[in-house]
Amino acid sequence: ALLERVEAFHERTRPLPGLREEYRAALKDTGLFDRVFPSDVNFVLCRLNSGVHAQALADFLFKRAMLIRVCDPGQGLDEGFVRFQVMERPEQERLLAAMAEFAEFAVQDRQ
């Protein structure tokens, strides 16, 4: 039974490396991030542009039933860093659409 679960896990996670690179590129394209770090795991670490607040982004996404990790100094990173889980394409597209909406809101707020 355990072997079957391990095989099922590997089958589900196999497409993630390709999705991770697509996700990284899409995150860069949002214009919200100063840097999107390379990753070999199913998380992507990003540093927000100056003036974009991590907690504001997290709150905006939370209201749309999406969670991201806001990093804090206790983790060795300042509050300008956020972490995203690599997900299947439909969930990524939903998150990226919400982030595009946030980006429009954030730009209007700064003007």
Number of strands: 4
Termini separation (Å)?
Answer: 58 Å
Strand order of the largest sheet: 1-2-4-3
Order of helices and strands: HHEEHEEH
Biggest beta sheet summary: 4 strands, antiparallel
- The shape, in one word, is globular
Q: Classify the helix fraction into a percent range.
A: 40-55%
* Low confidence ranges: none
What is the average of the pLDDT values? 86
Please, how many helices?
4
Provide the gyration radius in Å: 15 Å
The fraction of residues assigned to DSSP E strands is: 15-25%
Helix vs. strand class: alpha+beta
Which descriptors would you attach to this protein?
111 residues; alpha+beta
Topology diagram in text:
Elements: H1 2-13, H2 16-29, E1 33-36, E2 43-48, H3 54-62, E3 69-70, E4 81-85, H4 89-110
Antiparallel strand pairs: 1-2, 2-4, 3-4
Task: Characterize this entry briefly.
The protein is an alpha+beta fold. 51% of the residues lie in helices and 15% in strands.
